[in-house]
Amino acid sequence: MWKTPSMLPTASDRKGMIDYTFRSTSPIDPVLHSHSYYEVYYFHEGKCNYLIGDKIFVLEPGDLIIMYGMTLHCAKIDKSVEYVRSIVHFEPDILRPFLEPPFTINVLQPFQELKNHRIQLRGKDKEEAERILFFMHEQQQRQDRIGDNRMRLAFADLLYFVYERCLQPLQSRPELPSEKERTVQGIISFLEQNYAEDLNLEHLQGHMHLSRSYLAKIFKEVTGVTIFDFVYRWRINQARILFLIQPQLSVTDVGFQVGFKHLAHFSRLFKQHIGVTPEQYRKQVRQSETAESE
Questions:
Q1: Which of 2, 93, 173, 270 could be disulfide-bonded to 33 (CB atoms 3.0-4.6 Å)?
Q2: pLDDT confidence tier of residue 250, bands split at 50, 70 and 90
Q3: Which PANTHER family does this UniProt record tie to the protein (predicted)?
Q4: For the structural domain made of 5-172, what CATH number should be given?
C-alpha cells in the first residue's frame, strides 16, 4: 500500500502536481511501498537505513536520493532519535516547459536512467541543496500564486542541481541496459500508453512476443511489483490527476476513463491507495476550489 497523508489534494497539487514536505519529523512505520510519481528525498538528521529494491543505504545527513517511484522502498529508522527529512513528490509532466527550447537539458534523465540513486552532499553542495529546499518552503508558505510559481521555479533549480551531480554516474553507466531491463522498459511503455484499455497478459504476450510467465517473472524481478499492480497503481494515479484538473467529472466518468469497468472495484482500490474514497477525494478537491475562489 502506498497511501500517505500528503496524497490528499493540495493547492500545489492542482497547480503543478508537486507535493512538498519540508523537514518532516512525523513518525513512520517501515512499510514497503511504491508509487507512479518521481521523488526527491533529502535526509537532514536521525538514524535511517533506506531500503530501495535490493539495496540498503545507511544514510548520513546531506544524503539526497532520487527515486522514479515504482521500485519498492521504505525507511527503517531508529525511533529513539528524531528523524528529519524533506520530500518532494512530483509528476514528470510539470517539467515539460523546462524540457523544450530554449531549455534543452533533460533534467529527468537521472530518474529515467539511474532510476534510484543516492547523492552524498557535503560542504558547499550540502549548503546549496538545503538553501534551495528552504527557499521552496518559504515560497510554499505564502500560499499564493506568486509563491507557488517561485516554489516551482526553485524546484526546477533543484533538479538542475541534481542533474549536474549525476553527470558522472550517467556517463559511466553502461550505454545499453541489459536485455531484461530493455524488455521491462518495453512493458512499462506499453502499459503507460494502454493503461485505460482492457488489458490482460495475452495482449502483452502478443505485443512483446514473449511468454506470459516470463514477462510476469522479469517484471517483478526488475520493478518489485507485479504487472497488474503497476497497472492499477497507474490507473489510480491518473484518476487522482483527473479529479484535480477536472473536478467537474463524476466518479463514474473518471473510473471509466482510467480503465475500470466496475465502480466498486475502482472505489476499493482508490481508498486502498489514497486513503479516502474517490467520492471523498472529489469532494475535498471541489471544496478546496470553492474556498480558493472566495
A1: 2
A2: very high
A3: ARAC-FAMILY TRANSCRIPTIONAL REGULATOR (PTHR43280), HTH-TYPE TRANSCRIPTIONAL REGULATOR EXSA (PTHR43280:SF2)
A4: 2.60.120.280
